[in-house]
Amino acid sequence: MNASSRRPRVAVVFGGKSNEHAISCVTAGSVLAAIDRTAYDVVPIGIATDGRWVLESGDPERLRIEGPDRLPHVDGDRATIALAPESASTALVVTESAQPPRALGEVDVVFPLLHGPWGEDGTIQGLLEMAGVRYVGAGVLASAVSMDKAYMKVVLAAAGLPVLPSVTVTGREWERDPAGCRDRADGLGYPLFVKPARGGSSLGISKVHDATELDRAIDEALQHDPKVLVEAAAVDAREVECGVLQALDGTPEASVPAEIRISGDHEFYDFAAKYLPEEHTELDVPADLPEPLARQVQELSMRAFEAVGCEGLARVDFFVLPGERLVVNEINTMPGFTPTSMYPRMWAASGVDYPALVDRLIQLALQRDTGLR
């Protein structure tokens, strides 16, 4: 069957080697349930925690999160899968024990639902660029810059966007000169946030109230990333987010903004508050903002999207400081993507429901060129 007479084949890739493996699986379960199987031929591909690529189950129920000790994962014992070794081929080949390799046919687009390093940071995007395969979302540079919060701040600040002051601490610096690292952090004032520079899902993040808590927080962040960001805390700030989505002509569009309100024992939007339903988190979609401030959030979101060279989608997170002053917290090129996640909820409130959102992203990827753009 030639490419013009078959449905486009979409490879949904999820899992991965980062500590956000389980969250990626949850995201994939939602996307697999939403893709229109009458329009697309879907191939679910899991990346196990050891890096092996396998032909995964397409059952969304297997990919649900049921609690902190019952997280979904890629079954690394399944049949391995890879692109065909022939030059310029985009065919998928499955290899099973004691069985000859079998071809699944050409893949037209990859939907990489990977969060964190080795997926959201430009690594898989580079692999797909080398293979000449179209894919959903940001390219190599935008992915890498947005994943690394230290460089993200440099790029956004250079584009005239407001960011919070911060310092970067590497594991090598912390080992060689801890006193110097402490001095640089102290210069920001307290409270502080200490976080892995290239992490997500709020893993490894600590709020530091005074200097006595700094060492423990840096050590905790270094367990997740050898590069740590120490950032001035946004005191008495509201947390507001906005989704950016390209139109089919490539023009970025902004969703209605939304607000996260944390209650109970949580001082910030940590892992439990994000993913465990019994925790105390309220999401206001749309956010209760004055119209001029809401428009400013949307405008800054689109500016941030273009500043890092994003494609497809991004979620831009803000702090609203006293006096309605905005600062950009971060930009996520593959944000949480379940129907209850902020990004899809913001677009649903803006008139683009979850299946339509998934379809838009696939269509954008199908129509763009491979190679330099």
What does this structure look like?
It is a single chain. The two termini are 30 Å apart. The protein contains eleven helices and 18 strands. By secondary structure, the protein is an alpha+beta fold.
Q: Return the average pLDDT rounded to an integer.
A: 88
Number of strand elements: 18
Structural class: alpha+beta
Helix content percent band = 25-40%
Biggest sheet descriptor: 6 strands, antiparallel
Q: Which blocks of ≥5 consecutive residues have pLDDT under 50? A: none
Question: How far apart are the first and last residues' alpha carbons, in Å?
Answer: 30 Å
What percent of residues are in strands?
25-35%
User: What's the alpha carbon Rg, rounded to whole Å?
Assistant: 21 Å
What gross morphology would you assign? globular
Order of helices and strands: EHEEEEEEHEHHEHHEEHEEEEHEHEEHH
Q: How many separate helices?
A: 11
Secondary structure layout plus pairing:
Blueprint: E1 9-15, H1 21-34, E2 41-47, E3 53-55, E4 80-83, E5 91-95, E6 102-106, E7 109-112, H2 123-131, E8 134-135, H3 140-147, H4 149-158, E9 166-170, H5 171-176, H6 178-186, E10 192-196, E11 206-208, H7 214-222, E12 227-232, E13 238-246, E14 252-254, E15 258-262, H8 271-275, E16 281-284, H9 291-307, E17 313-321, E18 325-332, H10 342-349, H11 354-367
Parallel strand pairs: 1-2, 1-7, 7-8
Antiparallel strand pairs: 2-3, 4-5, 5-6, 9-12, 10-11, 10-12, 13-14, 13-15, 13-17, 15-16, 17-18
